[in-house]
Amino acid sequence: MAITKTSLLITLLKLAGKLPLRLAQRIGMTLGWLGWVCRTESRRVTEINLAMCLPELSDQERQALGRVSLQQTGATLMEIPLMWEWPVERCLSLITEIEGEHLLADAQANGEGLILLAPHLGNWELAGLYFSSRYQMAALYSPPHLPEFEDYMIQVRGRLGSELVRGDRRGLARMTALLRQGGIAGILPDQSPRGQGRAMAPFFGVEVRTMTLVSKLMQKTGARALLTYAERLPDGRGFRLVIRDVEAGLADADPVMATTALNRSIEQSVRRVPEQYQWEYKRLRHRPSGEVNPYRPHKVC
Hints:
Helix 1 crosses helix 4 (59-85) and helix 2 runs antiparallel to helix 4. The N and C termini lie far apart (46 Å). With 301 residues, the chain is an alpha/beta fold. A seven-stranded mixed beta sheet has the order 1-9-8-2-5-3-4, with helices on both faces. The chain has a two-stranded antiparallel ribbon with strand order 6-7. Strands 10-11 form a two-stranded antiparallel ribbon. The protein is globular. The chain is built from eleven helices and eleven strands. The protein is 47% helix and 19% strand.
């Protein structure tokens, strides 16, 4: 039987899933360090993003932050097999602190639907696992580039009953229905949307394409939104699960007002642990019409 890319990838994930947390993080941080010293594309994008988003830092400060950021991203990547392959109880035992749990309790006590915004900050897989272990939840996802890998991804992410729904009309209808029933919807809010549900809004002072999905769901269902992330603690000591309120105006009917509040909510959390944000993601590639794509200076948006 021929070995496909998908079967090889799943085998590697299962093998990596046998590692202890501290060793997995050390391997990931080493890979991230190599990505920095070898001047990879990830380093180039990170340097561009930090220069545009954090101009108040000195060059030396941005270099130091960029290097640590790639190391932290490497740790995140090596943690994913653990979150997918470890028993759920073992994964959840890594959460040693919870900040803002009262916000979650308030929303549930009022019977409100809840939209959990989980940006690419810390270990978002662990955050999703925590909430799906306690609540009826649906999470929005984009199909992987390898179609055969999708079944495996759905199986491991949904092993506690969490639904994974595509960002198409059918998936959004399911998410809307769940929120109206008082359930929870999980969304990665810092992606650059491709469809029509978007507006231009500032992110760290840079105008970027931003999703309007969150505000539309809030308007349709009356759901509340909270932001969450699992902050990595030093030396393999586990994670602090953080739950934060969002900026006022997120449900505003004006898409620019709503997306500005969304980006500001993300930005405030990123500023708390900037080294654990995924700065190598090309978040700024879709700019206002006529402006230059910062990652491809020869290309005008």
